[in-house]
Amino acid sequence: MSIITIVGAGMMGSAMSRPATDNGHRVRLVGTPLDRAIIDSIRTSGYHPTLRRQMPESVEACQVEELDRALEGADLVIGGVSSFGVEWFADHVLPKLRMNVPVLSITKGLNGGGDGELIPFPHHLESRLPPEKRGRIPFCAVGGPCISFELADRRHTMVVFCGSDGRAVSKVRRMLTTGYYHVSESTDVAGVEGCAALKNAYAMGVSLAVGIADREVGELDSESAKALCSPGAPDRNPVYNPQAALFAQSCLEMSRIVRLLGGDETLAGVLPGAGDLFVTIFGGRTRRLGSLLGRGIPFPEAREMLHNVTLEAVAIIRCVSRALRLRAERGEVRLSDFPLLFHMEAVLEGGAPPEPPYALFGETGKSACPAE
Amino acid sequence: MSIITIVGAGMMGSAMSRPATDNGHRVRLVGTPLDRAIIDSIRTSGYHPTLRRQMPESVEACQVEELDRALEGADLVIGGVSSFGVEWFADHVLPKLRMNVPVLSITKGLNGGGDGELIPFPHHLESRLPPEKRGRIPFCAVGGPCISFELADRRHTMVVFCGSDGRAVSKVRRMLTTGYYHVSESTDVAGVEGCAALKNAYAMGVSLAVGIADREVGELDSESAKALCSPGAPDRNPVYNPQAALFAQSCLEMSRIVRLLGGDETLAGVLPGAGDLFVTIFGGRTRRLGSLLGRGIPFPEAREMLHNVTLEAVAIIRCVSRALRLRAERGEVRLSDFPLLFHMEAVLEGGAPPEPPYALFGETGKSACPAE
Fold first, then answer.
1. Is A270 in Cβ contact with B255 (below 8 Å)?
2. Are B145 and A369 in contact (CB < 8 Å)?
3. In A, residues 221-240, which contact B (CB 8 Å cutoff)?
4. Which CATH class is domain B196-360?
5. Which fold has domain A3-187?
6. Rounded to two decimals, what is the model's pTM?
7. B41-65 pLDDT tens trace
8. Are A145 and B238 a contacting pair at CB < 8 A?
9. SS3 of A133, please?
10. Residues of chain B with CATH 3.40.50.720
């Protein structure tokens, strides 16, 4: 039995307490300043209001003021903030970490450097460590398809833990693998985390086709649109060839970006890429945003309809398209290799019509070439 | 304007008349002996009873007795039979083909040889040509996600035409590409057609999870089960982590089989593999079969509930697992690299419980390794 401290009490961070407690670990769940109401609720009744589930009874819920105490003696720290909380985590949690205690970050994203670099969060976090701790705290991260509700319900879930330190990855995997949480290992941080970040962007791209088809059968108010994009909802206008074309183009462009990041591009076609993209298009904010844009609703209006929630897809599209443009200026990439990415950017930023540029899509390489 | 003769008046063969006529070609649609009622209906009213659409007016529908006349002067012959009609096509159509007139086969499948070989249909058909015609009739084939109804409705559809003769592939692509039918090219017949065949098998695998989840919310009679597996139907029990795990494992195993066939394994992660698998799991016979098996219904009973329709998934699972076993005996492959395939075989042939062996799944190779 070990002590696992989860920092960030959002849905995914909190759901990680399920395999952790099932394996007999002592779990401390620490809220960020934004999670105050969640922690209060868990303390009062055990109920997690956004995960909409009772938490495992043994979980000790802590407010952010209790962070120091919660980190004491921890054998593993899970970074459970969203991508918008990653700097808070770097500022407030990293300095408190003990040497040699591994960190498992479930935050998915890429950090854009000024020179077109795209840095996976585990590497970014490592660079934010105080100098004396660098290289002495092993960072791991998660990729692969995992809806937090389903993990909390002990549904079969298959993910990849990655990190530069293979032994730390193995150790963390052994702590958290259960009969339903199936974990494989990788040392390819750029590959796994590149896919984990990019799939949010591309899930929006695939969802454009959902909105385009849906619009044909009549307009919707925003509440109906929200209901229709819930997991399991019927498709009002079931049309799948365009979605499948966008899905495949997404995998292709993800593989090209992963290669630029220095990762193994084939990961884009298996669990971290295609697998995670598959799960992401079945519901949630990203699908709702893509569907609204596909219906021809301009982004500022769509964002309002989504109550201005933070949209990771938008952040990733902006960050990656900016980086690719910088690299293209230096002649390192061809922007024409990413027609779907730049189409999504044009829809978001320029109010371009949602119809994707299918004629520009296609395979390249040794075995297939673009249509024109 | 050219003359295009389509042999086989099933749904996909008939749907190909849409891009063909839109490009101004003269189309002759010839039924097989099994298509007599379809051809009668088209002649009488223009209505295709299984495609459930009016055919383009200019299509000339012919019964099988008119085959010779229909092939006269054809610039392209489209082989539109199902995989169960491929020997009929070889026996009755191949001998009548003229030299240098390309054939585009939309039949998806693999032919198992006695020694563990798996031969894509275009290669199999080439081998069935009369000796004097071998090498003188260019065979092309189609891969990628295409639901026939949607092609008939001019939905954006992205496919790959492949063939050993790159110039013939380009020619056929130019004849059929339209503003909605987006065609790229490949000379990797084993890669493209391997994926095209395998995706039927693996779509059944992914659908097991649909049935397993669905069973939790109560039993269904076969008619309700059929309705629920129709495209666009709501998911009674929306659970996606297991489906996504199976989807990713499918892509991984497809890539391994494609490599054994001598094809480019990365095709399994883009349009011919992941893209086509995506579309296939959204509805139709394969999903229905997988869902019924997932509910714990034994295969003989499930087959009856599906009115004993021909099931391409079953044929492919049998053919590929037999071939891999033969190769494993010779030490050429490890059966443990294909846990999902052999699980599907065990469910079909041995009545094994449907729960997939998730713990055996996982990435291998340079960047990720299995959980155990």
1. yes
2. no
3. 231-240
4. mainly alpha
5. Rossmann fold (3.40.50)
6. 0.95
7. 999 999 999 999 999 999 999 999 9
8. no
9. helix
10. 3-187
